[in-house]
Here is the input.
Amino acid sequence: MTAVITPRKALLNEISSREPRIARGFSKDGIPGPTSQYFGVNILGVRQLRDKLPKEVFASLAASIRHGKKLDRAIAPVVAQVIKEWAISRGVTHFTHWFQPQTGLTAEKHDAFFAFDDDRQPMESFTGDQLIQSEPDASSFPSGGLRATWEARGYTAWNPASPVFIVESTGARTLCIPSVFIGYNGEALDEMTPLLRSSDVLSQKSIELLELLGDRGVQRVFTTLGPEQEYFLIDRAHFGMRPDLVMGGRTLIGAPPPRGQQLEDHYFGGIPERIQGCISEAEFELYKLGVPITTRHNEVAPCQFEMAPYFEETDLAVDHNMLVMATLRRVALRHGLQALLHEKPFAGINGSGKHCNWSMSVIADSSELDGLNLLKPGKTPHQNIRFLAFLAAVLKGVHKHSGLLRAGIATSGNEHRLGANEAPPAIISVFMGDMLTRVIEEIAAGKSSASADEQMIKLGVAKLPEVQRDNTDRNRTSPFAFTGQKFEFRAVGSSASIAFPVALLNTAVADAIGEITDSLRETLKKTKSVDDAVLKVVREAFKESTPVRFEGNNYSEDWVKEAKKRGLPNLRRTPEALKELVSKQSRALLTKLGVLTKEELESRYHVDRAAHHAGDGGHPGDSGGVRVPQSAVRGSLAVESRGYRGNSAGDHGESGGRTGAGTPGISRRPERRHGSRRGEARRSHRPGRNAHLRGSRYHGGSAQGVRRAGAFGRRRLLAAAEV
Here is the structure.
């Protein structure tokens, strides 16, 4: 009797026989050339413009970028001409203002260089006005009520600090001009504008403090960022078999696989050949765009990976991270793979985050201060007094505005991840490490009337060593950890734009720096020594921020109880976290510092609430922006809580959930196959070994909303998956 080959069996046979695709790249005699030969070939930044612009024009442009000043419009025509000639020489035919509306994606409208001269002869044209400003339709993007449907006028404006770049797609080449997006009356409608405002206010507050400390000649203080991007790569055919993955970016039903991550052998393991080809090609495309990717490796969960760049100035790092996500999705398709950026695409295994390594640096006239990392310990008592002052400001800001920082990372996708398997919980706390914790606690408890120099020597802080891996352990459960010369904000979701969370962090720290500066001014009226005054102010800041410092296991139930005693908010659900955006304290902070107006803040709150209620989340780019019906999401919760969030062949499950610091009612114990949760109706569910999509129907108690898709819906989704 001839064995019947089922469609699923045929698909598995086909996948197992696929050959890896050779990654595209520069090569000589079959050997890839050095990355330095082609790094940045598709960008035109300030360094590349040095040899192309007149000396005085370049000096003006470079000064506006270095000092964060407004661009002189008089130089725009000259700069535009140079950019046009470079782009055309690279085969570019169109240009676009590339911006980041509140959709989680980027947006662009392509215009041709093509025009006619006075004699109606065809020519290439690109003016200074076209470089600096464009006009998209402001009524068709999320605005939270700031713009009505009939109020369509909006503007994009070039951000010269981020280099223009060329995107190559199926033979077409387009010049992209990184821009901000504002409404007709100047309202912020994008992710980048609040970030740039927060950077300006942080710089202003930091310069004021530095001048009080005696560090003069500082022109600008800016933040640096290095976001570590986590993601899953699965076969495109498996992805197409799962309408829940196609529509929502995550699985809703299915049985756990025979093997998940129990053996812990995937992390840092050998990268599979087919995956290696995909990642290498993505890196090649990113290197051409000037994205400094330095690290790639297997992550903890099966089919999960990470790539990390060298740190850059924050607004540039944000642009580059958006390019990383877009490039991963695009290149994966070339290799027959699907990149999943959802924070929790599969139950029972690790989700994906975006660890943001954040620090503060100085641009100054003097060589001693220029390039200084304010979060790096120094070699003299004064340098370490300065380090402690800014360290105290970060702790003070995170403590005072922890609810606001939690709101900045609040998405429905991230809600599934927080509090499980190396993902930090919903309680915002700070990890400092043994050495710095000892120093902070001794300063906070100090009662000596000795001078600052004497106290610093006594504490061993006069020559504080650099905090490297042998001085500070790493706490992978901490949402905000000091890892040596920087803080790692580990709670940001993998699919999110990092612009808004970092804007809120900048704002919180700027507020704390301002308060420390004010306190220092008052203390200096009574104390002659600046260092003595700083140490007194720092002591009070360390005392005040004591509740937010935690060195233990953030997953433990004991920490949940302790955090409650300390008065730290535990905002476990996205709606309650988002309310922090419009709390009295947050309104006062953001409006006082000019990061968001009251109207902009209200609109952003409504946009985020609407995004949460529109569907279960996931990055729109994972599935073309289609959301799972809410009936499907609600109906699947009981199934999902028992660990059946989906496994077709090649997908993987996990063992572990969340603590009380994450989503209510989900523990880190193995998930039960039967029963109810928090009053949900018990459902009879007996999954077979392959309780996933098979043939023309679902198995295993799928939700009614998903079941209604029927055979026609599945054929349509599979057809879309093949495109």
